[in-house]
Amino acid sequence: MKKNDAMFILGIESSCDETAAGVLEVSRGKFTVRSNIVHSQLAIHRRTGGVVPEVAARAHVEWIIPVITKALQQAGTTLNKIDRIAITRGPGLVTSLLVGVETARTLALAKNIPLVGTNHLFGHMVVNQLPPNRPLTARGFPALCLVVSGGHTELILLRSWQRWQKLGATLDDAAGECFDKTAKLASLSYPGGPAIAKLAIDGNPAAITFPRPMLNKPGYNFSFSGLKTAVRYHLRDHGIPNGKAMNDLCASIQQTIIDVLVGKTIRAAKRYNVKTILLGGGVSANRALREQLAAAVTALPQTNFIAPNLNYCTDNSMLAAVAGYYTPVRANGWRGVRVDPNLSL
Amino acid sequence: MIVRTTTKRQTLALGKKLAQRLRGGEALYLSGDLGDGKTTFVKGLAAGLNIRTSMTSPTFVIFKPYPVRHHKAITTFVHADLYRLAKATAIADTGLTEYFGQPNVVTVIEWADRLPLPIRPTWPIWRINLRTGKNPNHRTITITGLPRKRK
User: Are B34 and A228 spatial neighbours (Cβ–Cβ below 8 Å)?
Assistant: First the structure.
């Protein structure tokens, strides 16, 4: 049952290869996820070794209405009781984004529901506010957020949920892309991040020393394309390893990426005296990254660490829904919500 | 034209120099393996067109358009990467092909061998292949389809 003072937000996300919809209840500043339906095309992509964009776009058309219907059913509600629709309007693949945005605009117009267009990256920044975590209060700011995914690696300083500043970002490849591409070089399966993380568990992270790009340079930018090249030449000279040597290779690659991410994040946290460090993006599901960043934060007595619940790390409807709660609704309603594949923070 | 470069800086400089020969409407097809310096070369081209925005890998979103200012013919530089396209089918669905042949656009495509080519494209094509030698810093860059230098 919906309480009188509760707000229901329908979140829709179709920025890359997942088609997702879900209902978020916000009551007295408390979040409850009523439903979170994700249709993933990972099975197709495993066969082909990567996301196939044109397949992704077509599948969005096919799945978006069934996914929204199921999300409303599972939440025990109907469109008539939805107070706000939140739709990811960028960044992402233009053809995939269009399917979600045009569907959301149509629903908003037909049912006269306020529509808010959200930023996919902001979604990754705020989705860690969902249970079991507690939403940040004003005392949690300034906060620092590390967003790491297949398309992004960014460090963002937040003064509040409405006011933020990008401190740095990758200059070339994203961290998740580096996992995927090095995994491909080592003939591992897609997606590369989980494949490397699994093999890394039984490996020695100090077995091979790869260069830590940018770690000792000032500023908060990242660079991962050099690591990809270093792995390529290591494999050319030593061959693709088997058994324990493969575990060592994966552990070493993973440790290199983590060292750079953690090193830069902690340095920024000290410089800006942040109260909270937030983690977001698909790579935040990596257990070694979560553990090592958490451990590094314990050295900062004034700082708390918040990582998203594992259910919300990869792309899902709550990215749009929670971002839609913190993003003000604009007066021109559905007319003003447009796709922007290059949307930045 | 075959050029050998021995540093990243030289690869950048080559891209920058060749950008001076762009007139708008060209498609540049890049081939080479992961880590062969394709993105570095593209950064050089962009620098040659005075694009100041930092260019990051377009692998995830397939292509990124950048505005070109202060050029008499070119207004848009599109950096595409077909790495994630496992099969070269219906690339039109990504919207990339809409840029082809536009006289004010230069389209640079990494992993262009995955592109289904029309038999007689109506736009000029430069083909650029990058290969790394035994020394990881050495590149052999082969370019075909370049227009003659203007006198």
Answer: yes
Question: Could A232 and B95 be called an inter-chain contact, meaning their C-beta atoms sit closer than 8 Å?
Answer: no
pLDDT at A86 over 90: yes
Higher pLDDT, B84 or A254: A254
The chain A residue lying nearest B38, using CA atoms, is A225
pLDDT in tens, B119-142: 567 788 899 999 998 888 899 999
What the block records as the tokens of B27 is 């498609």
Are A147 and A153 spatial neighbours (Cβ–Cβ below 8 Å)?
Answer: yes
Beta-carbon separation of A150 and B60 below 8 A:
yes
Contacts of A50 in chain B (CB under 8 A): 83-86
Query: For the residues of B13-66, what is the DSSP string, one character each?
Result: HHHHHHHTT--SS-EEEEE--TTSSHHHHHHHHHHHTT--SPP---TTTSEEEE
Q: Does B136 contact A171 at a Cβ distance shorter than 8 Å? A: no
Q: Half-sphere exposure (CA, 13 Å, Cβ side) for A21? A: 24
Helix axes A192-200, A175-185, angle to 10 degrees: 70
Query: Is pTM beyond 0.90 here?
Result: no
For residue A151, the distance in angstroms to the closest alpha carbon of chain B comes to: 5
- What digits encode the pLDDT tens for the residues B7-48? 999 999 999 999 999 999 999 999 998 888 898 999 999 999
Amino acid making up residue B145: G
**Do the Cβ atoms of B84 and A53 come within 8 Å?**
yes
Residue B116 reports pLDDT greater than 70: no
